[in-house]
Amino acid sequence: MELTDKRIAILAEDMYQELELWYPLLRMREAGAEVTVVGMPSVQEYHSKLGYPVKVDAAATALSASDFDAVIIPGGYAPDRMRRHQLMLDLVRGIFERGGVVAAICHAAWVPISAGIMKGKRATCFFAVKDDVINAGATYVDAEVVQDGNLITSRVPSDLPAFCRTIIAALK
What separation, in Å, do the N-terminal and C-terminal C-alpha atoms of the chain show? Predict the structure, then answer.
């Protein structure tokens, strides 16, 4: 199990895209990582766009960037809510600044944008977020996965295999 000693946060909020949260969560656990679903204080569970629940393991207030080797941010409409939570943005920025992996798929590019870590990077995202990525000072690349240092981005659920392979390779 290649990630036995790794700790990964997965951010959650209502209206997340089911595959973009559950596929990486299960794949990282399968690889041996300790995965923590992170939410906001006093929230026990979030629901996907289709109503599928995910239980929160820990509130962002109880965590530090030093607790994690990586953070994965799923898409859907959840990133628009996540970027409003300073605690989540601080966690993402802190993990990035420590050299940890920040991985965002689809609309999740909004979170690293709001965390202020996209400028000068190469990144991809869902096509509707392309202008936001460019306006944040990043170079948009239309590819299934783009890795620029410790930032990993993908576009859509069909990119998940490449997205997860790239996260695992970056954490080894």
Answer: 10
